[in-house]
Amino acid sequence: MGKSNFSLWNIWVASTLLKCLLFPAYRSTDFEVHRNWMAITYHLPLKDWYIEDTSIWTLDYPPFFAYFEWILSHLVPQFVIDDNCLVISAEPPAFSWPSVFYQRSTVILSECVLFWALQWYINSSQPGTERSKNFVVASSIVLSPALTFIDHIHFQYNGMLFGILCLSLVNAQKKNYLACAVFYTILLCFKHIFLYLAPAYFAFLLRNYCLNIPKKVPRSFSSVCKIVNWLNCLKLGSSMALVVGIAFGPFAYYGVITPLVQRLFPFARGLTHAYWAPNVWAIYSFLDRVLIQFYRHVWKTPVESLASTTSGLVRVVDFTVLPNITPKVTFLLTLFYQIFAILPVLITPTFTKFVGSLTLCGFASFLFGWHVHEKAILLVIIPFTFIVPKDKRLFEVFKLLTCAGYVSLFPLLFRPAEYGFKTLYTFVWCVIYYASFEEITPSLPRRGFWNRFNLIYIIGLLPVVTIVSVLEMLSSTVPVLQRFEFVKLMIYSVYCSIGVIASWNSMSWLYYLDDEIWS
Amino acid sequence: MPGSEPRTRLNVTTFRHSPLSDFLVPFRKAQSQWVARYIIVLFAVIIRCAVGLGPYSGKGTPPMFGDFEAQRHWLEITTHLPIKKWYRYDLGYWGLDYPPLTAFHSWFLGKVGGLIDASWFELDASRGIEAEGLKSFMRITVILSELVCYVPGVLWYSRWMGRFYTHISPIDQTVVAAAILFQPCLIIIDHGHFQYNCVMLGLALLSWVSLLYDDYAIGAIFFVLSLGFKQMALYYAPVVFAYLLSVCCWPLPNGFNILRLCAVGTATLSTFAVLLAPFVLTGGFSEIGQILHRVFPFARGIFEDKVASFWCATNTFVKYRSVFSLAQLQLLSLVFTLIGLLPAVVIIFLHPRKHLLTWALAGCSWSFYLFSFQVHEKSVLLPLLPTTLLLAEADHNTVSMVSWINNIGLFSLWPLLQKDGLALQYFVLGVLSNWLLGNLNWISKWLLPGFLIPGPVLGEKVSRQDTQTVIHTHWSWSVIVVTSYIGIAALHAIEFYLDPPRNYPDLWVIGNVTLSFGCFTLFWLWVNYRLFMMRNKKLKTQ
């Protein structure tokens, strides 16, 4: 269509209407968490926000998110307040439809940031093929099953947060480095999980904004000094400090920084979540369990029985056979792979290399991090989407990553009511976007040998999901199955972690060794 | 998802600017057009899943609950009782009052559901059960039933119309099919309120599609099955009967075709026999009497609750129930209905043309809805099915009228849906269906800055007609349509802000009924007028 506008408007209307229908869907404890935060910020003075602990769902996001909740709480209409929406209590108060309606709508409205950022991304491109590519990227992000499930069913505000991330990325692409840094800092002050992307940002901004690498080797002291662009450093440092100051300043003024930081970084959690996120530790825990069975049944060695890692109640997990993993190990592993990922950016600081390193930083944190949640897969998928149209080989990695990542979210919505919605929505998304990306990415001269494994893996997801669903369905009639409750989750997390780890491998291969993609 | 292929055939201009066709742009290429059909079906199912998350009728209202409990109860009694007790067991508590195919359908679903969780359908013990899994199971059975019966009918119907009547490209046929599948009333009644209307409507639709493809005996079988699922399919029976009779016996267009007559007759009778055989074999012929007694409850009133039929709407002025006896009312309503359906039946009998069939069905079923005995508000789904199928005409004025009457139909369901707690779904589906068809394009044109105006074509030079699908081109219809919308908005606003006066607690509902009745009557007259004007028109090619 020659004169296309490539507007996200229609997609916004359609998805918003669909999301309104999801209002009565399942909501997790995160709903109560955010309600409680609204209540805290509404009733208490700022200095008590990070101290108040009536409910166990204490405020543990950085200050901008607290300010955001403060704004939301002051916009609550009277009939929602009457519905106990803003009550601070240990147990969730008896709220009903108005509160749900209000909170769900704030998610939809705050998500407009994402639509706005991506519409800007589309409009800032050259009309023609580039614009159509950007349209596919943008629409695939806004319609992403992960965002729909996590934000509009499970309940969180990721749409807005990733909207800010996209703003920062678009600025990076347009070489507005200062704005890129400021948006990223704002994002950090909303949710500190984005710290995992910091190394890539650091390398990218350092190389592009703070240093002028001269062509010749510098021979005088003054030319060495000129390698560093001092003015830019000052601008960057002061603007980031300003943002951080706005966020944390008031809390520093009241002297409550220490409890704030303690809230932000709790270390009392276990290595894995109740449901293992599909990462390296899922495979590790799985191996441990297999070895336990071996010890018991093959070598007839008694193994002291331990609390099950999948029971969900146990906070700190000890492995039985394999050596224990300490937070320090996970931290070092993450850091190692992240530092590795930023080296190419330091050498060639292009936008595509930068997005590649963001993706790998996300991968490293997801695969090796401490107490990773399966929702964190968005941290990998969303930056990655921006570079997928570059090359078919990246697209193959993307297919593997998205289908494994999205299927791994299925246990998040565990009720039967959402079953049809989650499976069909993911399926349709995959069909439409795999076809669209296939169309817009330049084709390969030859099909890679490994792609067949990709295809087998993706098709293999169908029986995996079917088997787990059948197990779930029959668990009430066949009592034996109830004892293997954790098997369902284990099937999901082990199978999906294979996909995620494989996509990380191929991504690393392409990123470090295949230069023609990134030029 | 951009497609850069030029379209080969541009016959359908009606939906050209609709978001629906905007979404299907990526599938316009010839080799991917088949994908589009599956995509729209998947999206139709996704919307139904999302609507199904909401509440159902009678949730948490003991002792009788609502339609959901009735359907569940039938799964319970058919799986646990011998066939001869199906129509006799504890009739006070949701006794089975639909024909045998509903019973068999319930039996099958009950058997499957029993494999998943036997406690859902335990005899007597499961009454009023409200398990989370049960709700999901029941919701899924409606979706699967619709996928089996209704969706293929819609796809085949729009394909036939596109190929042989309107001559539009396959992708535009898909757009039409999507427009039909996103009709809000059926979605919200079946998947929100909870019923299996899609089965009856789907079987009826399959029968009409068979008639379009000249498979008369198969058409008769499907129609009997439809009747055998819900007796309400009788709304269509006069037209189907007249059409079949005409193509078999009427000597003028086709000649007297004794073979065809025998085939249709045998098919009809044997299907009835198969449906009734299990009852006769287990309980003797008296069972048939019992089924008829259960299925046609003439002892009930002329209307239930408030419904936008002639009798209820004019009841405000004439208190029929005090003026006439029940028997007199039955006769009166029969006479009115017969007079009402006469034009449609006569025209289809004299001119058995395929493109008239849907119009005649609409005329006939509207007359039943407006004038017959014992009409429910949900019965509006029956006339709305052939009415919605008229979207396949892809003609500006027809589409505008059909969109309008679908909106009025949805509005007429409002009192029921409000009671069920489906207000959110009501508004969302109302907006969604209109917006998909492009009826709300004028809002996008007004509100949005230029770069946001969506779509491949809307941003280009736009003629006046392109942006206002909702309005009929004739000024008198425009006035009527706009007035009715203002009336709807006013009624919703009044109801939201004011309680009805104490002496007339039903005042707002009566307003709803009167407005809907007026619009339905006008539409019924318009259908008959169009039918009369089109009676001699021949298909372009066939």
Fold and architecture overview:
The complex is a heterodimer of chains A (519) and B (542). The relative contact order of chain A is 0.10. Chain A folds into four domains: 9-174, no CATH class; 201-264, no CATH class; 272-324, no CATH class; 387-519, no CATH class. In chain A, helix 11 packs parallel to helix 16, helix 15 (280-298) crosses helix 23 and helix 19 packs antiparallel against helix 23 (485-513). Chain A is mainly α. Chain A is built from 24 helices and no strands. Mean pLDDT of chain A is 89; it is low at 306-316. Chain A starts with 8 loop residues before the first helix and ends with a helix. Chain A is 66% helix and 0% strand. Chain B has 542 residues and is mostly helical. Chain B is built from 23 helices and no strands. The radius of gyration of chain B is 23 Å and the shape is globular. Chain B starts with 18 loop residues before the first helix and ends in an 8-residue tail after the last helix.
Largest sheet of chain B: none
Shape of chain A: globular
Instruction: State the major sheet of chain A.
Output: none
The span between the termini of chain B is 36 Å
Estimated helix fraction of chain A:
55-70%
Radius of gyration of chain B: 23 Å
Note the run of SSEs of chain A as H and E: HHHHHHHHHHHHHHHHHHHHHHHH
Strand content of chain A: under 5%
Structural class of chain B: mainly alpha
Strand segment count of chain B: 0
Number of beta-strand segments of chain A: 0
Listing every helix as H and every strand as E from the N terminus to the C terminus, the arrangement of chain B reads HHHHHHHHHHHHHHHHHHHHHHH
Shape field of chain B: globular
Describe the oligomeric state of these chains in a short phrase. Answer: heterodimer
Low-confidence stretches of chain B: 1-12, 456-465
Number of domains of chain B: 1
Computed structural class of chain A: mainly alpha
**Spatial extent as radius of gyration of chain A:** 24 Å
